[in-house]
Specification:
Helix content of chain A: 25-40%
CATH topology of chain A: Arc Repressor Mutant, subunit A
Largest interface: A-B, 89 and 88 residues
Distance between the termini of chain A: 18 Å
CATH superfamily of chain A: Winged helix-like DNA-binding domain superfamily/Winged helix DNA-binding domain
Radius of gyration of chain A: 19 Å
Strand order of the largest sheet of chain A: 1-2
Oligomer: homodimer
Strand content of chain A: 15-25%
Amino acid sequence: MNVGFRVDNCSIERTLAIVGEKWTFLVLREAFNGVRRFADMQTMTGAPRQVLSARLARLVDEGLLRKVPYREPGQRQRDEYRLTDKGRDLYPLLVSLMHWGDRYMADPEGPPVVLTHRDCGAPIEQHLRCADGHEVGGPREITPRAGSGARLKSA
Amino acid sequence: MNVGFRVDNCSIERTLAIVGEKWTFLVLREAFNGVRRFADMQTMTGAPRQVLSARLARLVDEGLLRKVPYREPGQRQRDEYRLTDKGRDLYPLLVSLMHWGDRYMADPEGPPVVLTHRDCGAPIEQHLRCADGHEVGGPREITPRAGSGARLKSA
């Protein structure tokens, strides 16, 4: 975000260069659901074969997914796709998308899926908190400051 | 996310239908930075004029931005664009994008911007927590369950 310096090294923009596209997010959604195989990805996302192939290759190139070979009896060897740590770290992003959609885009009956805490069953919420432990309600309680990589505007 | 039921009412997919595109996220980034005017949006995002115009119109149609007329001395009346509550609720999504990018895409010098708590100055972090107050580390501690709008697979 910009507060009087340049945006050409913006982290949002660079992230979108990798994941800023519907099919890519849907591939990641399925990866988080444990879907690993091309045919299953195709069924679940509805992505055209070539699009899916291109998106998976990109995510592997960028280190968000890794390919692991497998072989079904009587079949040729194929690859399955597994999330790397870098890919898994996109989880908060998927949760943000899902929660906003649940709030504003769900059918009258309610959201299709609820994320719950494995240990106690209570629904998951996403919070902002500062490193000193204060709860932060939203953008009005946040001040953007120049980071160590900030580039000042020349104008 | 999918756990044995259909994905055709997926909240992630529906959200991406509105915001799943690079320029739209960059427009939202600038809106959160307090940028309200077309020319400033254009400068900050680098979006082609027609693209920016289309994205702003879409965000207004979907109720994420609202138009408010203004008039500079000697100029015709124009509209500026302000976040609605619905738009402002996308903030966690922008924070997720930014933090992931800071971690994996930043230059060696570090991230360009740091979000800090207005009151104490400490950097902002995003956390997952369940409604019973337990901290949740990540996807492995989360179980997706059918929500009230879940559609069972017919097959």
